[in-house]
Design brief:
The structure is a homodimer of 308-residue chains. With 308 residues, chain A is an alpha/beta fold. Chain A folds into 3 domains: 104 residues, Helicase, Ruva Protein, domain 3, CATH 1.10.8.240; 31 residues, no CATH class; 130 residues, 3-Layer(aba) Sandwich (Rossmann fold), CATH 3.40.50.10680. Helices cover 39% and strands 19% of the residues of chain A. In chain A, the strands form 4 sheets. Chain A has a 7-stranded parallel β-sheet with strand order 5-2-1-9-10-13-14, sandwiched between helices. A 3-stranded antiparallel β-sheet of chain A has the order 7-6-8. The two termini of chain A are 15 Å apart.
Chain lengths: 308, 308
């Protein structure tokens, strides 16, 4: 069994590759839920959905979110009612949020609901939220505090960031199966996801970082950054705001207590010595995943390290 | 000011005609909410929506429900999640139910929400639910009890009906503005809607029938039945099940305590004497409304009676 810590976009790419290289039933995907938010009274779980749609083969890979070929008729009507329209909820996508919201109200946990939905879509990998409790990544800008989706989607990550915190993190409990998956895995993979807003909340979920430090499994991380910039999204800006050097070395440093092997891009080969000094084995390869063959190749390289 | 009691389909046709013949701002439309139900956790109010969409000029008149040109992408996705799909919620239509549900959860009343939505769609007529409290028309069949929408849409009104009742009707209060509209109107119009499941719940809402009996306004009803059959829907079956003769005369009889004038179809002219014996003035005309010009003509005939 493999345990995988993931956010949305970058994680979805590596996981798609992994699902072709190993039996998906062997994968337990521990998803960030710090980006979750309520819109139009519906509970939206962007990272879980991106991973689920991706493994179901229905994700819009060009956009990096939502369902391929989705329509936006409801969104247009929301506009007529004066509702917020900055978050582009597609019509098929809405059915997911409506169904999730109904099941949560019926008393199911987020983990239960996630499991029901992914099974219905034919996804064989286990998808678990980091927690069933509500955690919300809050972004402190110089103009006030906003949710991560407001920062990322509404404000297109333009505002300067003073700080970030995960509201509710101290009192949340890890979802059933998360700690166990890390303890029992023969390898744990840290996806090339935003270290501050995707992997960060998972690591801060009580018990998870400790399980990563203590597990006998080898823990393999993949950098989401090449040079000084994230392959996608605002990871570098947020790392800088949090006082971490925005580079593969900065990330490796913040994972140094639990990561055994770290994959960086060949372009960053000069960082190898610095990262190895942290006691981490470094492998330099091509970490960009533009095509399915890129995703599969990187997944194979990760699996080759696992086999060692 | 005109007060109008209405259900969905038939009522929407006459109201559309009225909205062309009088200033819509003069109309207070008191809508049945006995058909309201919760689907996918969303509060659906079929009669209010039919009236609202119709007056907003966006109703699908060919189907008799929903928004013209709506798509059904979410419905397809609901099917993939194993959710109920017998009630054909369109994508634009979903935005209405989602917004209504959110506002109700935020503490607004159904009347508040209805008013907000109809204004957003540019509807100048006032639309009020009969009550802000939950009333549910229950249909007792020989195979068990179901909601009206299950009977009407899911079962296509095929089951034999033993009885009907309005759950919650005794303890519900009329929505603010309903009684006042009837008291202050210079005429009240009872639309050609199902007397059992559309007009029936409105009349049973505490205080409304009394206001109709006591109002000095002339009360003008239009039959939804020609011969032994409703122009659309199961009114005749339901009337028979309730022990009322399924005919214009049967309806007039059940409205006799408050109706002053009753419009029947020319085909039913033979019923004139029987209805007049109840103290009701009868006018025979063509009550079918297949085109906008039919709707306007019938509306003009109603308004001519009001003017008398």
């Amino acid at each position: 069994m493999l345990a995988v810590l993931t956010g949305g976009t970058g994680g979805a790419k590596l996981i798609q590759g992994l699902s072709h290289e190993v039996d998906p039933a062997e994968l337990t995907l521990i998803c960030n839920t710090g980006d979750d938010f309520v819109l139009h009274g519906l509970y939206v779980s962007p990272d879980i959905d991106t991973i689920m749609y991706s493994l179901a083969g229905i994700s819009d890979e060009a956009k990096g979110w939502g369902v391929r070929g989705d329509t936006f008729a409801a969104l247009e009507q929301f506009g007529k009612y004066g509702c917020e329209t900055w978050f582009k909820l597609g019509d098929k996508d809405l059915a997911t949020h409506i169904t999730r919201t109904r099941l949560l109200r019926d008393g199911f946990t987020l983990a239960d609901v996630t499991d029901q939905l992914r099974r219905r879509l034919g996804v064989r990998a286990t998808i678990v939220p980091m927690s069933n409790d509500r955690v919300e990544t809050r972004v402190q800008t110089f103009k006030g505090e906003i949710s991560f989706q407001e920062y990322f989607v509404k404000e297109r990550w333009q505002p300067d960031v003073r700080g970030i915190y995960y509201a509710g993190i101290e009192s949340c409990r890890p979802a059933p199966g998360t700690i166990e998956a890390i303890e029992r895995a023969f390898a744990v993979i840290i996806c090339p996801s935003n270290p501050v807003t995707s992997i960060g909340p998972i690591l801060a979920t009580p018990g998870i970082r400790k399980a990563l430090v203590e597990t006998e499994a080898s823990v393999i991380g993949v950098s989401p950054i090449i040079g000084q910039s994230a392959i996608s999204g605002p990871a570098h800006n947020l790392m800088a705001a949090m006082g971490t050097e925005p580079s593969a070395a900065g990330i490796a440093g913040s994972y140094a207590d639990f990561v055994d092997v770290f994959l960086i891009d060949r372009q960053d080969e000069s960082l190898k010595t610095e990262i190895e000094a942290l006691g981490i084995t470094v492998m330099a390869t091509s970490i960009r995943m533009n095509s399915l063959s890129d995703k599969r190749r990187l997944a194979r390289e990760v699996m080759a390290l696992v086999a060692k």
